[in-house]
Structure prediction request, 738 residues.
Amino acid sequence: MRYGILLLGAPYSNQAAHSALRFARTIIARGHQLDSVFFYHEGVHNAARLAAPPQDEPHLVDGWAELQREHGVKLDVCIAAALRRGLMDEEQAGRHGKEGHSVERPFELTGLGQLVDLGLRCDRLVTFAP
Amino acid sequence: MRYGILLLGAPYSNQAAHSALRFARTIIARGHQLDSVFFYHEGVHNAARLAAPPQDEPHLVDGWAELQREHGVKLDVCIAAALRRGLMDEEQAGRHGKEGHSVERPFELTGLGQLVDLGLRCDRLVTFAP
Amino acid sequence: MHLHTLNQSPAQSQVYRQALAAMADDDCLLLIEEAVQGALPHLIGPFEGLAGRLYVLEEDLVARGLLERCDDNARVVDVEGFVSLTEQADKVLSWY
Amino acid sequence: MHLHTLNQSPAQSQVYRQALAAMADDDCLLLIEEAVQGALPHLIGPFEGLAGRLYVLEEDLVARGLLERCDDNARVVDVEGFVSLTEQADKVLSWY
Amino acid sequence: MNVNKANEGMNDSNIAHTSITPPSATGELLVILGHAPHGSSLLREGLDMALVAAAFGRRVSLLFMGQGCWALQPGQGEGALGQKGTQSTLEMLEMYDIDNIMVEAESLERLGLESSDLVLSVSVVDAASVQQAIASHTLVMNF
Amino acid sequence: MNVNKANEGMNDSNIAHTSITPPSATGELLVILGHAPHGSSLLREGLDMALVAAAFGRRVSLLFMGQGCWALQPGQGEGALGQKGTQSTLEMLEMYDIDNIMVEAESLERLGLESSDLVLSVSVVDAASVQQAIASHTLVMNF
Prediction:
């Protein structure tokens, strides 16, 4: 089956991101395809490239990136939700006249249309929230 | 009177940051001294220097910076809570071997001891939470 | 006197129970954010014992279109009144 | 069959009411995160009508030290079982 | 909410994909709004999602439940410091042809809201109708 | 939690300040823990705060209420993906001389927890004692 995940919770503040990553890995382990994880609402904080959790805690940002690298899972971040929360890539930083960036590949800033598309294209869309 | 504010809520996800900034401005307008705002838990996201909310919405990060500039309010961010959530200044980025930074002055990364100190030093400590 | 703030609706969250348990006889409760719902006649039930010590934040009522619907037993204060309450209170506790 | 997940404790949040209202007669409810509290004998009340359709996530029970205290009427599934439930369900709704 | 802004990052392949898929006659997407406006941004972000889906030609229905019902209270304004409310977004629903708008009866009653005094023209529905609505839409999303 | 890590950013002036202030005989800081472990990080961050205060020589008391009582349930482990729980932090309380630990009786009862079956040696207190504890501490913080 084709799955999509919608993540609305920020990492390290509540369990949503942990639950979602655990679920994502299990989907794949059972032979399903995970097309994309869409990060929306507080979930955009999962794309923070400068996250540096203590070494004895799960590194969620790296966990998502690994899903992309090893299983081709797309990591789509809602651009409107991200910008207001301080998450932007180099292109957006340029547009907004800011130096530096807080989001980088494999996370991609994109529009909500991608979420609509994901939900309707996949067999199952599962939401994890705060 | 001397006030301190503890902010535990992330901007744009819930009302806590809006309530806290409104309260902060009112304290000062009434002639009190606001020593410091301490950002902890999700509240550390208020220090995201790349925040770019739409122009018709309040810019909370700038709002905090203005308090510092105009009234000398210290903006202290819990370093442990910040690092795991992707918020670090240049010094921490250097230590963690990362390029770029997501927090800059007037926000300062500091330890929880500052919060203890703030709470005991001030006449009133008021918490705003998600 | 201690001031207790509550920011969750009593129709949604049970955290108001903690606030009530922690309130001494002369403590005040200020409803802010979603908790302003607790000042409506339909939802004021849990706070009925607080006559004269129940406050509700005007700006948060106004934003939600609820100012006119407020129960007479809740005292409406604006954010200046909120600060004034914190001046009078020895401590401020936040329930959320 | 639709699968409904709930992640808030029924001792704290009223959101379970929405989940129950939205559940058709053959729908299933899976308790995850703080909602696993709802599988304890003391707190299972709201879910008593769901015999055979009430599931609870084992890993979240174990993390909280609650696996042994689970009510017999809640069916314990691990995260593989969670995925399996989503395979069987036409849709997955998340209440939070 | 500004649909254009929300779509800034949309790539061309996605626009092409949605434009070749004809909207189905009955609801494709049901957005359930269960959180209060002002207190969190979930409701607004759920509405944004609904508007974007409608802008892409999807047939969208809305269902207000629980705390989400407060979005229908008349006379709302901006929040603290001018924090945007949801009223302006609700006014855009008609323009986007979102006209299947439901609110659950028991939620209204628990909150003390009168169905005759809501900002939108909505269908007050019982739990059975909620279940039917869920069954009759391709995709259901909770906000 | 690692106190050293939490204090990384502490500057010298602050350390000097706390070292010249003698700890008072009775409680200076009351930390109220009202959120469940695992589901959110509030409880853990509240405990971190308490440990840091104790490390700086402050006299700290803890009060578990509402969902916070679940921190006292025996047999807890790590969360999803090895997410850290609070048990290891609780075990450090004694080392930091935090020995005034209270739990509210009605909360325990509502959740079905037995006071005889908790991980820490705690005083089960009624609402009046909660109010006294609040009155008798210089600073009260809710987590």
